[in-house]
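Researcher: Checking consistency across runs. Here is Putative RNA-directed DNA polymerase from transposon X-element again:
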Amino acid sequence: MSVLVLKLTAILVALQHILVSDHRHFCVYTDSMSALESLHSLTERRHPTVMEILLLLRKLERKGFDIIFCWVPGHVGILGNEQADNAARSLSDHMQQPVCYHDLKASIQRYIHSVWQETWDQQVINKLHYIHPFITHWTAVPIRRPDVCLTRLRIGHTRLTHRHLLLGESPPVCDFCHCDLSILHILIECPNSTTSITSGKSLNTSASSLLTKIQPTVPALNTATSNSRTSPVTKVANNF
């Protein structure tokens, strides 16, 4: 049962007690603004508990009851509110309340997500797990081209680091560290490239041109000689 449904159920139980009371003027306090807003919502797909509350309110109104609702801030040390929360929690475990389809669907989705996340957490040898450890959506850029460039940088598939696979060449190597060149190495691991980035040196080529599609007629990369040790960041700018 969700927090909203729990608050709505508490309001419903309070109205049911009011129905058998001899008094006619009541104020129902709740710390759930969303519950109060749902009672005033005009959407067609209302929650069944909301419909039940509205029907009961109409019945109470016909019997001459005067009922108002008042919102109080929750979890700020109001003694009466804290006691009401504790009573609601203890009662919710013993209530035989039918489960709404929307609540059941949300519960199933949360369970599937948790199982999916547990399965993904075990894929430690998958390089995409290191890049995106949580099964949540990446924030997309509204313009497709920059979004494609950003995605390629995230997964590390760029023209500089992977074109050798299409052209049948040897993989590029960092001139300073003598290890395979990758986006992770260029941006984070290589001390020379990170120094160039943090010092604010400008690149001659934009990221969009850096990540352009590989054409079959593109010539091979210029290989730096041992006497000309080029910074990985400069190499990115010069070759893309």
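Researcher: Does this match what you'd expect to see?
Model: One thing to look at in this run: The beta strands are 25-30, 66-71.
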